[in-house]
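ok, trying the design again with the full structure, not the truncated one.
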């Protein structure tokens, strides 16, 4: 009964248990759905937390019914992700020094070792329960911050952040920090959806404590395969899901990836040492057998060395460097548009780059273009509907677990709504004929 009422509220755009409580008291539709039951505020909050345990099972049931009734095609999925603001203030982010200072003040207030004459800061809760709760959150925030410092220390020295600028949200320490759709730096979570492009039903979803989509393609393929019992054959995605590792992951899993290769990185337009647009690396031809490049002037750029490059988490790729002869390059008529420094022209090539070249060629085919056109029409629509019609632009509970539950409830509500429409259309001879 509670689930029915919650699904109705989510479709109206109400995602908070506090609103469900108010609506159950004053909305006649809710009275009808709950047969007069008006639960307390605590019941709603408890239900939201309990729903996390069964929401995946319910989602699986809806997908199974949709496949069985031939409304959902499990062989194709369109993937995309979108960030949603966490239930946390972007003004309450602290660095390690501030966190330790606050912890000392709070500990003093709890131990009553603070001078009674001294006024406590406003952020110290008045009750003992509130203080204990805040102390637990500060301790958790300390662990998260320590992990972020460790990650920062593992980066190459040129890419390390100033340790004082590494911060954590005290309202929701689990939430990573990143730029939201309005380009505001804040705590957020990222939702990933795999949608069937013909029925607009969501096949699989996830909510992660990450600020980007990087590395999510294999995770979503595995999850979709689990839900559809290995029926997925083709995945449509945007350029953010088309790295060398993503293409390899798809090949290993026997999935055809329909995604354009992102223009960033390899084909970035650089300036030459004379300030002119530099001759792009695409004009250099790679010879795999000889392992060298040939430049537009016909000179050879020999293999120089290679280095290990980190690519998401603990995965690495080797990047080789090829360089032209310094004297030949400096004497070349094209040197003004080609060289960026005093040495010969340098070209970098990442291991597996031939996969990107093959993917680029594949995306020029008509068949790939037709498939790719389905992506924008389906998965983008799903995110637009969530943010516009269901007003889901912010989570309403703190922590990753609650964010996952909220995502699951939203997915279930929208899938049930969509499946109902598909079933009605299927039983309507006028619609079936159309
Ligand atoms: S500057 Fe060197 S690499 Fe560039 S076109 Fe001339 S010879 Fe080739």
């Amino acid at each position: 009964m509670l689930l029915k009422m919650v699904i109705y509220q989510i479709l109206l755009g109400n995602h908070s248990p506090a609103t469900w409580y108010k609506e159950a008291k004053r909305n006649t539709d809710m009275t009808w759905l709950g047969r007069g039951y008006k639960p307390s505020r605590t019941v709603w909050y408890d239900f939201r937390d309990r729903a996390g345990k069964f929401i995946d099972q319910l989602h699986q049931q809806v997908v199974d019914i949709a496949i069985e009734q031939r409304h959902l095609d499990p062989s194709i999925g369109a993937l995309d992700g979108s960030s949603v603001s966490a239930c946390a203030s972007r003004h309450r982010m602290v660095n390690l020094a501030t966190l330790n200072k606050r912890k000392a003040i709070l500990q003093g207030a709890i131990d009553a070792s603070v001078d009674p004459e001294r006024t406590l800061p406003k952020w110290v809760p008045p009750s003992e329960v509130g203080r204990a709760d805040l102390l637990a959150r500060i301790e958790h925030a300390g662990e998260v911050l320590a992990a972020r410092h460790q990650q920062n220390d593992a980066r190459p020295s040129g890419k390390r952040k100033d340790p004082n600028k590494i911060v954590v949200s005290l309202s929701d320490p689990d939430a990573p920090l990143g730029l939201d759709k309005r380009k505001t730096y804040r705590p957020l979570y990222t939702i990933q959806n795999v949608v069937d492009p013909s029925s607009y039903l969501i096949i699989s979803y996830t909510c992660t404590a990450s600020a980007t989509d990087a590395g999510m393609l294999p995770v979503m393929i595995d999850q979709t395969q689990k839900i559809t019992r290995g029926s997925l054959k083709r995945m449509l995605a945007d350029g953010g899901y088309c790295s060398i590792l993503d293409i390899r992951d798809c090949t290993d899993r026997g999935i055809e990836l329909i995604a354009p290769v992102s223009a960033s990185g390899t084909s970035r337009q650089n300036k030459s040492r004379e300030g002119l647009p530099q001759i792009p690396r695409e004009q250099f031809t790679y010879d795999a057998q000889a392992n060298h490049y040939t430049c537009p002037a016909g000179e050879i750029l020999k293999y120089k060395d290679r280095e290990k490059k980190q690519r998401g988490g603990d995965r690495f790729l080797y990047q080789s460097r090829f360089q032209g002869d310094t004297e030949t390059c400096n004497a070349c008529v094209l040197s003004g548009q080609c060289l960026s420094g005093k040495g010969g022209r340098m070209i970098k090539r990442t291991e597996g780059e031939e996969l990107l070249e093959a993917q680029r060629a594949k995306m020029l085919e008509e068949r790939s273009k037709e498939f790719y056109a389905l992506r924008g029409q389906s998965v983008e629509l799903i995110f637009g509907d969530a943010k516009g019609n269901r007003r889901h632009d912010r989570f309403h509970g703190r922590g990753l677990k609650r964010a996952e539950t909220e995502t699951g409830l939203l997915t279930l509500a929208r899938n049930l709504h969509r499946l109902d429409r598909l079933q009605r259309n299927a039983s309507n001879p006028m619609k079936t004929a159309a």
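Keeping the full-length input from now on. DSSP finds 14 helices and 13 strands in the chain.
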